[in-house]
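Changelog-adjacent note: as of this version, every example in the card shows the full chain rather than a window. The one below runs 159 residues end to end.
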Amino acid sequence: MDPNSPLTVRLYVRADASVVKRRNDLVARLKRLDRQHRIDSVHIQLWPRAVSLDLLDVSDDTELREVVRAFEAWAERQDRHVEPPFEVRTTRSTITGASDDQLVLPMLCIATYRDGLLVDVAPCGDGDAARTVEDVIDALAAGEQPGTETRSDSEPVPQ
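Full-length structure tokens:
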């Protein structure tokens, strides 16, 4: 993939108070990389702590569902995994006793798109090592070009 094609970074953020400083530091670093033209654009997107899998499947708002599926497909093609931090938990109502499977989303997640195609996601792991949001931002700051080293037997997932 052409290292000169547009590079877009999306930082997905939960509004949990426990990560305020970390979140603000990461946002500031990404904005700085954008100003330095190391990336072409940066988008900060809020997402929920968790979402019911039943609702995710029937909701008219398909963006979150498509993002999660794209991340899972990317991970499979790259021989990586995104669970955890994306994990399914069952909750049970103390009032009705009904249970609900919920997808719990990470507090912070970063996705990198080159020319509109998903080329990197963190946090993720390969069984031996984990790759963090900070690792991705550090690589971008060091001038690494995600998506230019994609294995020949894998196609990037469309954004």
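Structural remarks: The radius of gyration is 16 Å.
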